[in-house]
Design brief:
Largest sheet: 4 strands, mixed
CATH architecture: 3-Layer(aba) Sandwich
Order of helices and strands: EEEEEEEHEHHEEH
Shape: globular
CATH class: Alpha Beta
CATH topology: Glutaredoxin
Strand order of the largest sheet: 8-7-9-10
CATH superfamily: Glutaredoxin
Number of strands: 10
Helix content: 10-25%
Number of domains: 1
Structural class: alpha+beta
């Protein structure tokens, strides 16, 4: 169910931030074992238009894997880059095609990049999430338990912190500010 002040369409919700866990990726040069990548920037992901995008394109920025449109607006010019990776592994909450997802979010003025829908758990887990989960395990194991799991990656591509689905963005804004202050 969508929260107050949110919109819902075709099973997705948008609440001040985009309401999804985000995933999708391909590895290069660590396609056989992305957990051995030296940095997040050694990986690549497929965007909504089917283009393979090297994560090195975002070198020098701090990442937070969530739907944080408000933080994006507030900190983008200071170096924050939010990347969205839709996933349908949590109660079928992201059933749309890539095109339907993009059509839905365009109405909200989202400007951060979206990557192709993918799996974040199981045998089909994409390399970006294999890497992030390997370096930042969860409380009860490495699997992602639900939408709204968030990852913060520093300017050097090193995973910094993993936040549970219940962690509100304002609760870790200080971590974002701290990483942005580091050169």
């Amino acid at each position: 169910m969508a929260s107050p002040g949110s919109a819902t369409s075709k099973g997705w919700s948008f609440s001040g931030f985009l309401g999804r866990s985000f995933c999708s990726a391909e590895a290069a040069p660590h396609a056989d074992d992305p957990t051995k990548a030296k940095s997040f920037f050694d990986l690549a992901a497929t965007d909504m238009e089917g283009n393979v995008v090297p994560m090195s394109k975002y070198r020098g920025r701090v990442f937070n894997y969530t739907q944080l449109a408000e933080l994006d607006t507030k900190y983008r010019d200071k170096g924050l880059q939010i990347l969205a990776f839709p996933c349908n592994q949590f109660g079928g909450q992201e059933p749309g095609t890539n095109e339907e997802i993009m059509d839905f979010v365009k109405g909200f003025g989202i400007t951060f990049p979206f990557f192709a829908k993918c799996d974040v758990n199981g045998s089909g887990t994409v390399p970006v999430f294999q890497y992030l989960k390997h370096h930042l395990g969860g409380l009860l194991g490495n699997f992602i338990k639900w939408n709204f799991t968030k990852f913060l990656v520093d300017r050097n591509g090193q995973p910094y912190q993993r936040y549970s689905p219940q962690t509100a963005p304002n609760d870790f804004e200080a971590d974002i500010v701290e990483l942005l202050a580091k050169q």
